[in-house]
Amino acid sequence: MGKIIDGRAKAAEIKSALREEIANLKKKNIIPGLATILIGSDPGSIVYVNMKQKTCQELGIYSEKITFPESIEAEEVEKEILNLNKREDIHGILVQLPIPPELKYILDLIVPYKDVDGFHPENVGNVANNNEENAFIPCTPQGILSFLEDLTDLKGKNVTIVNHSPVVGRPLANLLLNRDATVTVCHVHTINLQQFTKNADILITAAGVPHLIKADMVKQGVIVIDAGFSRVEGKIVGDVDFEAVKEIASHITPPTGGVGPMTIAMLMKNTVKAASLSLE
Amino acid sequence: MGKIIDGRAKAAEIKSALREEIANLKKKNIIPGLATILIGSDPGSIVYVNMKQKTCQELGIYSEKITFPESIEAEEVEKEILNLNKREDIHGILVQLPIPPELKYILDLIVPYKDVDGFHPENVGNVANNNEENAFIPCTPQGILSFLEDLTDLKGKNVTIVNHSPVVGRPLANLLLNRDATVTVCHVHTINLQQFTKNADILITAAGVPHLIKADMVKQGVIVIDAGFSRVEGKIVGDVDFEAVKEIASHITPPTGGVGPMTIAMLMKNTVKAASLSLE
């Protein structure tokens, strides 16, 4: 049976290191500050924003929640972001996704050095240009990368990613190419997914399709990272048929307590980084 | 035998359409202007810059060549770029690559709306975020994409790219993901390249390794785009063993007159686009 990757333990390690950094910043009179903008009342989004706020409190990061109704005029959100861009007590700005498509452009209004989600084109471009030190790396890909770097040398590894969104699959592909892995990006339009998953030394999936990945789709000894998330009859289910695939994998994330906790830990890390950069 | 893709004919078509656009711009008193910066005296770079200038003249685009010695201070180049950023008669700025590594940062000083090479992180990020209309698309990938869109619907196609640089492989991967292809990016650290090339409906290579791709590495009916370029005993040789592979491919670019002419045509297209945008 493969080793279960413990996301909660790893996230706790990261947060413990951050506590020290935050204490050092406080000595320099800096309290890292994160503003979250929530538009509408999607129940999932509310849960996520609250979890982020709670983790901020836990670590001693100042957090501010700004809530707009679904029907908000774009100019109101714009005005708020431009104001947050200027505020010295706010180092990170996060707009909780999903947002209405006609508001998507507001993400690009966040100044790149406060873009702790790493979605601003300048941050995205710096990652793609193999210039990571000048970028905020998106949280979920950064968390996944941190698991992988603990486990293996990525150079020359065959990695298959099942997700081609700008939030997970694409930044991950660039991060892995920066480390000289061979990368295949699959998605809902891929024909014969199995031929790509079966070949992978490392399989990362974030499709949101319950039990998409079965035991006969992976090879012996594969590392499996499951960032998929669905609810089936009230139970949280990943993209991977965990019980069956764990018998074949060398390492595998569980359906809960895997990638999730890392995403929030990395958001905190990016916020502390933004606060540190404000000193320069 | 596969059909030979005629890059010269396709480039001529594009240039002919551009001539019309340029005539229309002139009616509005705009003459598109391209500045090229050449640092050092690499013979290849000199040839490329001259070809770009010649094509500008052919089309009625104003062009200006700025040349610095290899030993130039970074601040001098910086000053020149900041000046070109401001000039109203210059719509596109191109720094001929390669440049000394310590000068690489100057590429990011070009304002994104004059970055006709498409290497500025903001342009790169907009392509990666599937927001192409707000980006300049790098010239070689844009030329390759234009071939492919003439030949096939990219959705669900298996594409293998042999190049993982920010100049060719990565922007191409993003452009193809934007069109829902399944994309594998290979490179010098890939183990068992053949397993990835053999599976491809479309194979794009830019490795600069003469005859890296042999007939037994591709499948029947593949589309082959060869952007590789080497000199062997004074002769120009691509990455693909053209004579053997053309018997298996459905479409294939020749070692010369394939991707090359398209790269320059797309630079002209980006320059005219930059001039048009200056009217907005």
Structural account:
The structure is a homodimer of 280-residue chains. By secondary structure, chain A is an alpha/beta fold. The first copy, chain A, has 2 domains: 83 residues, Rossmann fold; 122 residues, NAD(P)-binding Rossmann-like Domain (Rossmann fold). Helix content of chain A is 39%, strand content 16%. Chain A is built from 9 helices and 11 strands. In chain A, strands 1-11-8-7-5-6 form a 6-stranded parallel β-sheet. In chain A, helix 6 links the parallel strand 5 and strand 6. In chain A, helix 5 crosses helix 6. Chain A is globular. The N and C termini of chain A lie far apart (48 Å). The interface between A and B is large, with 38 and 38 residues.
Present the secondary structure layout.
The structure is a homodimer of 280-residue chains.
Chain A: E1 3-4, H1 7-27, E2 33-39, H2 43-59, E3 62-68, H3 74-86, E4 92-95, H4 121-128, H5 139-151, E5 158-162, H6 169-178, E6 182-186, H7 193-197, E7 202-205, E8 223-226, E9 230-232, E10 235-237, H8 242-245, E11 251-252, H9 259-277
Parallel strand pairs in A: 1-11, 2-3, 2-4, 5-6, 5-7, 7-8, 8-11
Antiparallel strand pairs in A: 9-10
Helix pairs in contact in A: 1-9, 2-9, 5-6, 5-9
List keywords for this structure.
homodimer; 280 residues; alpha/beta; Rossmann fold; 2 domains; six-stranded parallel beta sheet; three-stranded parallel beta sheet; 9 helices
Corresponding CATH architecture of the largest domain in chain A? 3-Layer(aba) Sandwich
Report helical residue fraction of chain A.
Answer: 25-40%
Q: Assembly state here? A: homodimer
Question: Biggest interface: chains and residue counts?
Answer: A-B, 38 and 38 residues
The top level CATH class name of the largest domain in chain A? Alpha Beta
Structural class of chain A: alpha/beta
